UniProtKB/TrEMBL annotation:
<dbReference type="InterPro" id="IPR013746">
    <property type="entry name" value="HMG_CoA_synt_C_dom"/>
</dbReference>
<dbReference type="InterPro" id="IPR011554">
    <property type="entry name" value="HMG_CoA_synthase_prok"/>
</dbReference>
<feature type="domain" description="Hydroxymethylglutaryl-coenzyme A synthase C-terminal">
    <location>
        <begin position="268"/>
        <end position="350"/>
    </location>
</feature>
<protein>
    <submittedName>
        <fullName>Hydroxymethylglutaryl-CoA synthase</fullName>
        <ecNumber>2.3.3.10</ecNumber>
    </submittedName>
</protein>
<dbReference type="InterPro" id="IPR016039">
    <property type="entry name" value="Thiolase-like"/>
</dbReference>
<keyword id="KW-0012">Acyltransferase</keyword>
<dbReference type="InterPro" id="IPR013528">
    <property type="entry name" value="HMG_CoA_synth_N"/>
</dbReference>
<dbReference type="Pfam" id="PF08540">
    <property type="entry name" value="HMG_CoA_synt_C"/>
</dbReference>
<comment type="similarity">
    <text>Belongs to the thiolase-like superfamily. HMG-CoA synthase family.</text>
</comment>
<keyword id="KW-0808">Transferase</keyword>
<dbReference type="Pfam" id="PF01154">
    <property type="entry name" value="HMG_CoA_synt_N"/>
</dbReference>
<feature type="domain" description="Hydroxymethylglutaryl-coenzyme A synthase N-terminal">
    <location>
        <begin position="6"/>
        <end position="169"/>
    </location>
</feature>
<dbReference type="GO" id="GO:0004421">
    <property type="term" value="F:hydroxymethylglutaryl-CoA synthase activity"/>
</dbReference>
Length: 387
């Protein structure tokens, strides 16, 4: 029957910001031992958006490159997952839909539950495809993580987007119907409507992550999902890559298993250089694992999504034959390498520069990505292709 067809990720694509800040420079400016960032929290760099970039331009750029490969046949839904959206009412999906020139017969909507919204969008997409297997869904997870300057969250900022095409008989990863879920109302991290930066209780956020991980794991087991011995690796939400190390330790202690620590490093290659990309972080981790680990075909992996507030989900899926795409891996590495470094002063200036909606402003032309944020006109944000 149509509902038992395998469904999952047909293809994916990562987009990086125009700028990058080396965390060694930030450590120096903040009077911190650089090893605290590189080893203690496990981040080398963080993506910094240019004045003409935001989640819409990052998401549209990732989606454009993805759809160049896959085409748009069967595409009837765009789901945009973000917690740093550009409007309280209009979705990023509808703007991306316009920028990509998609037909009007494609529905467009945005989803929110902190970093978990990316996994929520994937599950929603799978439901749509299960109902009508000829349909495909474009999922975009895009975020710009912002904490206050000089706060302990500062080195865990970042920027990036991952676009995923969800389809039946997927070429990369067939996602299992059973997953483990967990929700609990916690004030570990949030962003009030009148704040441009997130507020966070760092210690509480780590224990809330742990509770969601173990709760989702137990639910997966209760639902009859695979045990730890059946998993080749687990990819985690990575607000900073050391969090994945902690998570794997929690899971090993909880299950009595021992997941492969090498897979952790392979799944952290992109997140170490992006910083926290919130909704996109887990999928950047998946991209990194697929790009750096051999012999995954036919193997089952776990994917743990955590969103503060809080929601967790442990998904599992089977990696498909031919999953290795050296060209895509090389393009991702090139996009990360091509980011233009900023000094701490330049980063601070960009961090504080936020456009209101009360005056018409044109943004400087900086990004070389396919799309840019052109500025504000009569209160509305305007976007355009760069070429
Ligand atoms: P902190 O207080 O600055 O750091 O905040 P610390 O003192 O806890 O040190 C961090 C680690 O560095 C420790 O390692 C130190 O030992 C080590 P650990 O004990 O944890 O293994 N360290 C060093 N290592 C080597 N050389 C040195 C050195 N000095 C110290 N010289 C914190 C860290 C992560 C709390 C902070 O950055 C923060 O608040 N970040 C934001 C919150 C966050 O990312 N939470 C993660 C879980 S919540 C989540 O994932 C959701 C989220 O993505 C949002 C969403 O869902 O939307 C955040």
């Amino acid at each position: 029957t149509s509902s038992s067809a395998s469904i999952g990720i047909e293809d994916l694509e990562l987009a990086a910001s125009h700028h990058v800040l080396d965390l060694g420079r930030l450590a120096e400016a903040r009077g911190v031992d650089p090893a605290k960032y590189t080893r203690g929290i496990g981040l080398d760099e963080m993506g910094v958006v240019a004045a003409d970039e935001d989640v819409v331009t990052l998401g549209a750029s990732a989606a454009a490159r993805l759809l160049e490969r896959t085409g748009t046949e069967g595409l009837r839904t765009v789901l945009f997952a973000t917690e740093s959206g550009v409007d309280q009412s209009k979705s990023g999906a509808v703007i991306v839909h316009g920028l990509l020139g998609l037909p009007s017969s494609v529905r467009s909507v945005e989803l929110k539950q902190a970093c978990y919204a990316g996994a929520a969008a994937v599950q929603t997409a799978i439901g749509i495809v299960a109902r009508r297997p000829q349909e495909k869904v474009l999922v975009i997870a895009a975020d710009v993580a912002r904490y206050g300057l000089g706060t302990s969250g500062e080195p865990t900022q970042g920027a990036g987007a991952v676009a995923l095409l969800i389809a039946a008989d997927p070429a990369l990863l067939a996602i299992d119907p059973v997953s483990g879920v967990y929700s609990a109302d916690v004030d570990d991290f949030w962003r009030p409507n009148d704040s441009t930066t997130a507020l966070v209780n760092g210690r509480l956020s780590i224990s809330a992550y742990k509770n969601a991980l173990l709760g989702a794991w137990d639910d997966l087991q209760a639902q009859g999902g695979p045990g730890v011995d059946e998993l080749e690796a687990v990819v985690y939400h990575q607000p900073f890559t050391k969090m994945a190390v902690k998570a794997q330790r929690f899971l090993d202690q909880h299950t009595g298993g021992r997941l492969d620590p090498e897979a952790l490093e392979q799944g952290a290659v992109y997140d170490r250089r992006l910083g926290n990309t919130y909704t996109a972080s887990l999928w950047a981790g998946l991209a990194a694992l697929l790009d750096h680990r051999e012999g995954l075909e036919g193997r089952r992996i776990g994917l743990f999504s955590y969103g503060s507030g809080s929601a967790g989900e442990m998904l599992t899926g089977t990696v498909q034959p031919g999953y290795a795409r050296p060209e895509r891996a090389a393009a991702t590495r090139a996009a990360l390498d091509a980011r233009v470094p900023v000094t701490v002063e330049e980063y601070e200036e960009l961090h504080e520069r936020l456009l209101g909606s009360d005056e018409d402003v044109e943004t400087p032309r900086v990004t070389t990505a396919p799309f840019r944020f052109a500025g504000v006109q009569e209160g509305a944000r305007k976007y355009e292709a760069t070429a």
